Amino acid sequence: MTSPAPSPYVGRFAPSPTGPLHAGSLVAALASWLDARAQGGRWLLRIEDVDTPRCVPGADQVILAQLAALGLVPDEPPVYQSQRGLLYQAALDSLVARNLAYPCACTRADIAQANAALGLVKPRHGELVYPGTCRPENGGLRGRAPRAWRLRVPQGQAARWGWQDRRLGAQTQALDTTVGDFVVRRADGLWAYQLAVVVDDAAQGITHIVRGEDLADNTPRQQWLQQCLALPTPVYLHTPLVLGPHGEKLSKQHGAKALQACDALTDIHGAGLVLGLDASEITLENWLKTAVNAWPWA
Ligand code: GLU
Known about the structure:
- The chain is of the alpha/beta class.
- The chain has helices at 23-38, 59-69, 85-97, 108-117, 175-178, 193-203, 219-228, 264-274, 284-294; strands spanning 10-13, 42-47, 79-80, 101-104, 148-151, 160-165, 169-174, 182-185, 208-212, 235-239.
- Helix 7 links the parallel strand 9 (208-212) and strand 10 (235-239).
């Protein structure tokens, strides 16, 4: 009897085109590339341009050029989330048809008020837990105009979501008390990150997700959504964050500097150090080769 062939590895880097790559996003790009290469897999690129107000025209091309200069070249042309609305709509339709998603009329102020009435005043990372006000069984829209669409999360014991991260180990999150029913289509009509990312990871056949640790607490929501849509769950690895001088996460909003396009080796060496790789090769090509062999997570 022959054993089945191992499933092929498909990884991805999924930047939002809100500006050029910075030291933090380079770590995620490099780690996802190294993991794919170390495991003989393919590496895809997805431009996450659903949040159009935050996108900067031309930033996708800048990111592609930066990646190419760093020797990180995707195995297929990039896909753009802005062109995939029909897929997201089909996913939402399927959730609604099964009463897993429902329309919500609440504003942020409504949610804050409902939280306060329940004695839940502390927002998690500034996000308010949705208390289920517009769930159909709680009275639904009550004549108010629908704004966003929300996905139901399990309640009680079933809400304790356990998952495994290759670097962080066993993780848990109580979906009901830390997140609540979450938005899959926003009040401004845009597709929510959670829905788009889950639909696309499945559509692109992604088997391994490697991304920054700041996204780790989205994983239970995404795995729950995968389950609701009967999609496979990839394997997860969340990489260390690059912190600013005051311990804050680097992001374009906090003025993180773009990479020095003229010195790819310095940039990649810096990103490697964050990942525990201290190769001192003098050409980019050799650095990448050495790093693939030294990649600790393979
Ligand atoms: N587009 C997201 C970001 O740039 C990454 C999404 C993901 O890797 O799941 O932060």
